[in-house]
Amino acid sequence: MAAIDALLKNMLEKGGSDLHLTVGLPPKIRASGSLQPLTDQPLDAAGMEALLREICPPRRWQDFLERKDLDLAHEITGVARFRGNYLYNHWGQAAVFRQIPAKILSFEDLKLPEALKKLCHLDQGLVVVTGPTGSGKSTTLAAMIDYINTHLSRHIITIEDPIEFVHPVKKSVIVHREVGEHTESFAAALKGAMRHDPDILLLGEMREMETIKLALGCASMGMLVFGTLHTNNAPKTVDRIINTFPAEEQNQVRVMLAGCLAGVVAQLLCKRVPKGRCAVHEILLTHEALPNTIRSGQIANIRAIIESGGADGMVTMDTSLMNRVKDGTIEAKEAYMKAANKALFAPLLKPGDLEGGH
User: Fold this and answer.
1) CATH of domain 107-315
2) Backbone phi, then psi, for 271, in 5-degree steps?
3) Which of 61, 150, 157, 320 could make an SS bond with 280 (beta carbons 3.0 to 4.6 A apart)?
4) In which residue ranges of the chain is CATH 3.30.450.90 found?
5) Residue 161's pLDDT is what?
6) Edge-to-edge strand list for the sheet holding 261-271
7) What pLDDT digit, counting tens, does each position of 26-40 carry?
């Protein structure tokens, strides 16, 4: 057993989701959204290197020393899989490990909105799942792929860095490819995927301009493409995609995006009452007014499209937050902190809720 496995098992026993390792500090875990020390013993530089190097293939370790960053997956057989990120900071080497649930959670397990099933039944287009780091995007996407795998016969290619959820054989054929192991880059894998006759492509992250451009191209060619971005709502997601490109290309990108954008699912995690966390969503689906809104650059009008599309399953983040407050899932203070229109939630706050600098 690798030395780091003891820390990871201890984290799981305490209900943690992430393990943070930094030289000079004791190992810390994130449990119910808060960081807490796992032990009293701080890590030194030699101990850190030993922990990280033991579970890293030699070629990947050399990559880490050269590039100062590395993503990889680590599995404790019969216990859990973890997504690891190695990095350098002011004190030396460091790492963060996040648990990947051994069981792929279903729509029902996650209580995902029914509107997301509509996106799973599409034949083509670009679906973007967005949210901050740690908001559960990968878990939601895994549930959507599992739904497709359970109900439909599709050829699905996932391109990830690293591979997180490994889907069992059901109705679909799923090919998992890991950047750095099975392909040089997201862009290289996407170019190859065009020749592999896929119905569905899943991109772990749309990081660079070339990757986004290829994703738009695949969606325009008749594939269903799922990707992720680090944005907080649907209008910002559209803006982010367009603004990734230089000014002289943005008109062309608007036309491509207008023609293929099938949906945006923005996700946030909130503290659940009495404990744990729950996801809240903003959902933008296809609408007759959406293509022209994107082509004309009137991105602010997307908010009105979502607000008028409630009957189709569209919903704004603030409405989702209010619904969770009303059904007692989250507290008003939590919704207030996450809301865009804070005035909507201010009357629901209790005295003292905003003390402490909020």
Assistant:
1) 3.40.50.300
2) -70, 125
3) 320
4) 3-100
5) 87
6) 173-178, 155-160, 200-203, 224-229, 125-130, 261-271, 277-285
7) 999 998 778 999 999
Question: pLDDT band for position 103 (50/70/90)?
Answer: confident
For 147-161, write each residue's pLDDT tens digit: 999 999 999 999 998
* pTM (predicted TM-score): 0.84
Q: Are 276 and 111 in contact (CB under 8 A)?
A: no
Residue range(s) in the chain whose domain bears CATH number 3.40.50.300: 107-315
Q: What is the pLDDT of residue 123?
A: 96
Q: What pLDDT digit, counting tens, does each position of 108-126 carry?
A: 999 999 999 999 999 999 9
CATH class of 3-100: alpha beta
